[in-house]
Amino acid sequence: MHHHGYLWTGPKDRFDQDALRRPPHPEPPPPGSRPELIQRYREVAAEFPASDLPPLETAYWLVKPASSVRGTWTEPAGAAAWLGERLAAYAPRFAAEAHRDAGRLARHITHAAGRLGWGGDVSLGFYLERPVYLSLALVTCAPNRAHPELACPLGG
To answer: Is the separation of the CB atoms in 109 and 30 below 8 Å?
Structure first.
């Protein structure tokens, strides 16, 4: 088991494009479906894995391009330390002053290490200067607890 780190920043209105953040249904529309439904399914099936947008379900980062991986760790402590470094780097830009609190940030790091230790995933999001959004994720891989069928993006 290992863990991958992901980071995305971008306009909040792009982050809100939920259709591009959810994987296509596992089965395509049945034959005879409306052409627009078939076309939309094809678009989502092609765009979801290639999109840099954070998926609605954290585990689906694993189907994104390998270039999306910002770091890989075999131990939860290393992954949590990476998260802590990102939080420290971005905290001065957090829109909500309460999110900048050092104790709160430390709890995020402690919680992340514990969650990764039992095979869970971690996902955090913060508003930065409006309308920018920061998404951070740590995903357990090989296997992922929520979706063990998802392969490692780095082929490991």
So the answer is: no
Whether the model pTM is above 0.90: yes
Contacts 24+ apart (CB under 8 A), 70-77: 70/4, 70/5, 70/6, 70/7, 71/4, 71/5, 72/2, 72/3, 72/4, 72/5, 72/154, 73/2, 73/3, 73/5, 74/1, 74/2, 74/3, 76/3, 76/112, 76/113, 76/114, 76/116, 76/117, 77/113
Question: Mean pLDDT per 10-residue run, the chain (156 residues)?
Answer: 97 89 90 91 90 95 95 98 98 95 97 97 94 96 94 88
What CA–CA distance (Å, rounded) separates 11 from 76? 30
Q: Which tens digits make up the pLDDT trace of 109-145?
A: 999 999 999 999 999 999 998 789 999 999 999 999 9
Strand partners, 11: 132
Judge whether 28 and 56 are in contact, CB under 8 Å: no
Tell me the DSSP string of 130-155: TTEEEEEEEEEESS-SS-TTSPPTT-
Q: How far apart are CA 77 and CA 98, in angstroms?
A: 25
